[in-house]
C-alpha cells in the first residue's frame, strides 16, 4: 500500500510503535464501522465520516497523495444513530453508510433516500427510497463481490419509541416490543431484492461472511451472533450464552471463521473464533485487567488483538490495545500494542478505537484522540512486524 509521505507521524510513548495520522483538522473523523471495510480493495482510497458542529458528511482520502475529496452533501436533519451514539448534526445518517470496496463506491442514506457515489468524486445517484413508515436502524454492508447492498430497517414509529433514550436499563427491556425488523439485500445492478431475516427484535449490525452468508448482531433474547444466508429462510446463533452468563458482543468475519469476545459485564472476558459451518470453536481468557473489549478485525484471522477501555461515570481512565502474542500449552500470552490515548468526544461510537487491519495487513486502522486539535482522527498503527499469533492452531 502506497502512503503519502505528508501524513503526520507520531510514536506511541508506551510501545514505541509508529502512527500515521491519516485525517487532521478541527473536526472529528471516523471510518465506516469496523466490521466492514473503509479502504478500497485496490488500497487507493480510505472513505470516512467527517463531523463538525454543522454537519456530518462522507469524505475520501487518496492514500498515495493525501488528496481529500468531499463525497456527500446530504441535508437530512435527524441523523443520530439511536440509541448507540451521540447527537449528530444534519447530513448523512450516522454510521449507516457502507463501502463497496471492490467497485470503489460508497452507499449512504440521506434520510430514507439510499444514494451511491464513486469514492474519488461527488457524483451521487439514487438507488432506491425506503418507505416513509420504515427507518434504517443498523450498520449495513456490501458483499465482497460488490453485488448486494444489505441494510436493516424497522417500523419508524415503534423504533422511535423503543430507542428514544440512551439509558440502557430503559432501552433493553423496551426492545421486546419490536415487531418485524428486516435485514434486506438489494442487487445494486438489477434491483432484485431478497429478505435475509425478519425478526421481532432490533438488530444493529450486519456484515458478510463471503458473498452468500451474513453475521447479524444482537437479538433481544441474548447478545448473540446470528448467522443467516443471502436467500433467507433460516438462521442459527453461533455462540449462545454459557453457564457463566457470557455472551458475544463484537465479532468479525475472517478467512478462518468468526472472531469474537464474550462476557457478562466487563469482567471474566473470553475471546475466540468459530467456524460458522461446523460450529467448531476455540476460546481463551483475556487478561483480568481488561474492561470493555472490542475484538480487533484481521481479515485473515491470524493476528488476534483487542481494544481495551476502562471507564466509569466520570469518563474513560484507560484506553489501549493488546494483542495475543502466543498460546503455548493453552496459556495465552499478551503484549501491549498501543498505549493509552485520550478521546476528545462524548463516550460513544466515535470514541472507540474500532481497530481493523488494512488490506495489506501492515497497519491497524483506528479512531484515536489527536492531542494537537483535541479531536478524534483516523490513525494507522504500524504492525508490519507482526504476522500472526504464535502457536494458535484452528
Describe, in plain words, how this protein is organized in 3D.
It is a single chain. The chain is mainly β and 394 residues long. It is 4% helix and 44% strand. It is built from two helices and 31 strands. The chain has helices at 156-162, 168-174; strands at 8-11, 18-21, 28-31, 45-51, 55-62, 68-70, 90-91, 98-100, 105-110, 113-118, 125-129, 134-136, 141-142, 148-155, 181-187, 193-199, 205-209, 213-217, 226-229, 236-237, 247-254, 257-263, 270-274, 281-285, 292-295, 305-312, 315-328, 331-338, 356-357, 363-370, 375-382. The strands form seven sheets. Strands 1-2-31-30-29 form a five-stranded antiparallel β-sheet, with no helix packed on it. Strands 3, 4, 5, 6 and 7 form a five-stranded mixed β-sheet that branches. Strands 12, 13, 14, 15 and 16 form a five-stranded antiparallel β-sheet that branches.
Give the overall form. Answer: globular
User: Which structural class fits the helix and strand makeup?
Assistant: mainly beta
Multimeric organization: single chain
Low-confidence region ranges: none
The count of DSSP E runs of length 2 or more, i.e. the number of strands, is 31
Number of helices: 2
